[in-house]
Design goal:
92 residues; alpha+beta
Length: 92
Amino acid sequence: MASETSEPYYRVRNFIEDLGGSMEWKPGGGPGGVWVLTLYGKTARIDARSHEVNELDRLYDTQLANPKVWEDYSHHATLVPDAFWKLVALFK
């Protein structure tokens, strides 16, 4: 198993698990795959393709005004102050 700090989105995973949910990576469908998040009986699927910014990236703080690729986020980035509400919005 990867160490906590080397795993992609480990802060989001910890956040979801602290709320009683889960987060699982499913590779496939070309370069990338999908993150399957479950929380309070609901499921959200977040496509993660190549280097494109996705909804999980947007839960993290970045120094750039308009990030274009996932590398625009620091590996040690913190969650944005309203990460909880942004996370809940993924389960629409």
